[in-house]
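Q: What would this chain look like folded?
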Amino acid sequence: MGAVQRRVRYRICWTTDRHTVVRMLNSPGNHGHSLGLSVGATNLAGTRDGQSAVIRPAELTLRGHRLTGFVDRVGDPVPLIAPDGSNYRSEDLLADALGSMARAFTDGAPVSDVAVTVPAHWRASVVDTLRRNLRGRLPVVSDATAALTALRASPGLPTHGVIVLCDFGGSGTSITLANAARDFSPFGETVRVPDFSGDHIDQALLTHVVAGLGDASHSDPSSTAMVASLVRLRDDCRGAKERLSASTATAVVADLPGHGADIRVTRTELNDLMHAPLSEFLAVLDETLERYGVPATSVSAVATVGGGARIPLITQRLSEHLRAPVVTTPHPQLTAAEGARSSPTGAGSSTRPPR
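A: My prediction, written as C-alpha cells:
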C-alpha cells in the first residue's frame, strides 16, 4: 500500500449527531473522497484515497469522561455506564467514533464512497446491529474480506490453494481461511484466539521490565501513584515492542514510586516472552486447518495483517511452521481499511475449501 501513514493517538471529542454524518457520507451525487474505516477492539483505522491514514484508540471522551471497551460490547443490551452515571449503547458510541474518524479525514468535504469493516469473528447479529445503527447507509463488511481485497491488489496473492489469513490484533488473533481459486472467498468460521494478543505481549513485557527493577516489583500495586505509573510504563512497553520490530534493542523508561531507571530490552528477550503463547497459537492454527480438511500442502500463502504482523518472530515462525510464503503490507494495521476503501461494497460468501 502506498499510503502515507499519519499515526494519531488522542482522545475523540465528538458532538455532531451520528446520523448527520451518515447523511453526509455516500450521498447521491457526491464526487469526493474515497474512505475506508476499520473497527478493531483497541484501535480504529482509516484511509482516504490511498494517500493518508489515521489510527486512533477505540475510545470517546464525553462530558469529560473517557469511555472505552464499547467495540467488544456492540449488540449488548446492557448499556455502558459512564463514571457520572450516564449510560450509552455501545453501538451508538462506535457510530459516533466512526463519524469522528470520517470528519477528521474530510473536514466536511464530500465523500463519494465509504465502507466500514468489522471484525470477522463478530456474529451476524452483532454486525446487523451496527448496520441498523448506521441506518443501512454505509456498507459494513468483514475485515477479513477487506484485507484479502487489499492484499490481492498489493503485493499480490497466489491464485491457487488456501490462503491462511492471520489478523494479529490488540485483543486477540483471528484465523480466516480463504479459497484462492474461488475469488478468495472465506470458508468455514473465523477462529478467534484471545490468548495471543498485543495486550498480552505488552503485559508480559511490563512484567519483565518491573522484575528488572528489583525492589520495585514488591511495591504495593494498588496505590494510586503506582497504578498511574504502571499505566504509563505499560504504554512505554507497548512502544518498545513496536520499536523492536525494526531494532534489535531499545530502552524503556521505568519511573515508579521510589524507583527510576532506563531498562534495556532486546528483541531476543521479547522473542523469549512470546515463544510459549505463539506456539500455542500455532497449535490452534493446526487444529483449524485439520477441522476444515486443509492439508499443509494446500496452503499456498499465509497473509498477515494487524499491528502484530510487523513482529519478525511471528513472520519467521509462520513461514517455518507452514512452509509457505508470508504476505503482508508495509502498514498491516491499515490493510483492512485500505481494502474497504478499494472495494467499499465487496463482501465475501462462504464456499467450500479447494479439493
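Residues 1-30, 346-353 have pLDDT under 50 and may be disordered.
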